[in-house]
Amino acid sequence: MATRAITYVWKIQRPPNEVVARIFMAAAYQTAMKVDPGVTTVLIRSPIHSSTFLDGHYVKDDPHITICSKNSTQEELKTHEAAHGYTVSLEDPTLVRIEPSDFVKPDEAKDRRGRMVWPTGLHSEVVMHTDP
Questions:
Q1: Residue-by-residue pLDDT tens, the chain, 132 positions
Q2: Mapping DSSP to helix (H, G, I), strand (E, B) and coil, where does residue 38 land?
Q3: By C-alpha distance, which of 99, 110, 96, 120 is closest to 43?
Q4: Is residue 91 packed enough to be buried (19+ CB in 10 Å), middle (13-18) or exposed (0-12)?
Q5: 3-state helix, strand, coil in the chain (%, to 5)
Q6: What is residue 32's three-state secondary structure?
Q7: Does residue 129 contact residue 7 with C-beta atoms inside 8 Å?
Q8: Sign of the C-alpha dihedral, residues 60, 14, 128, 72?
Q9: Which residue of 35, 51, 52, 59 has the fewest C-beta atoms within 10 A of its own C-beta?
């Protein structure tokens, strides 16, 4: 079994409840590993939620978490890839499917509402994971 360090960066406020924070990290980790098994850093952009922003407004969607992730090369290049990790429910982080963006963006990129996707200076923490 291999042990790896993953840096989690919180774009949202880190939940004060450790169980909830770990649920978000579990969903984010599963999503990131499906996008790129060489992931080193994961940006948690949202809690698990059941809506998406489409054509200028929110619409109902299946429960999912929104993340961005980087591998070591993307760390050096200051780029990332986004993905949605669809889960069993709002409370169960078990991954059902992922929808990666399928393209890499610079960290300075802005979302559809003009907000920086991966701003600097956010709270981060390193968590060790053991892969089978």
A1: 678 899 999 999 999 999 999 999 999 999 999 999 999 999 999 999 999 877 878 889 999 999 999 999 999 999 999 999 999 998 888 999 999 998 899 999 998 778 898 998 999 999 998 876
A2: coil
A3: 120
A4: exposed
A5: 20, 50, 30
A6: helix
A7: no
A8: positive
A9: 59
Q: Which residue has the tokens 């003009």?
A: 114
- Environment class of 15 (CB within 10 Å of its CB; exposed 0-12, middle 13-18, buried 19+): middle
Structure tokens at 56: 């200028």
**How far apart are alpha carbons 129 and 89 in whole angstroms?**
23
- The residue assigned the tokens 């990790």 is 85
- The residue with tokens 């619409």 is 59
